[in-house]
Amino acid sequence: GNSVTQMEGPVTLSEEAFLTINCTYTATGYPSLFWYVQYPGEGLQLLLKATKADDKGSNKGFEATYRKETTSFHLEKGSVQVSDSAVYFCALRQGGKLIFGQGTELSVKP
Amino acid sequence: SAVISQKPSRDICQRGTSLTIQCQVDSQVTMMFWYRQQPGQSLTLIATANQGSEATYESGFVIDKFPISRPNLTFSTLTVSNMSPEDSSIYLCSAVNTEAFFGQGTRLTVV
Asked: Which residues of chain A have a CB within 8 Å of the CB of B102?
């Protein structure tokens, strides 16, 4: 069946460090891929998305590229801020349903 | 975009009782879903709420435990029945058109 595997956390970085959170997926067909973010005490928000191979989603300095050949959708940011501290979820969508990875907690220290 | 109002935002319930969670969307949406997020874990899909018919449940979830209603295109309810401490979780409603939007969630604690 469809599944999403993402890098385990927690990840702790210093401000302005480079961030990568790995995400790989298993799916039949060509799902849309998403990154969602959950800030402390808040609901789930869409961060970025890609709907087909080689698409790059980007938002708030974060980027992820849909790589069909490696079935990956790794999240990157060149310079993280303390305000980026949150839990990040990779997800795939087929037929409207979202299947989530286990989440990666990011903590950014000043 | 769609704005989702979910009630209650949190509750503490006695074991053996039931709680109904409401989800109201500010516009008509194609699909609505219910997810569970257990403490420190990811989101797991409970079921698809089908308008005017029975919900479609994922493996491991059954209608007797999690009855769902969706009387129209903007409203759905999830009931957590005969609760036990293992049901303590955050329950989230999701509405989908071209994007998936989430409510703030209901934090349920069963004592």
From this structure: 43-45
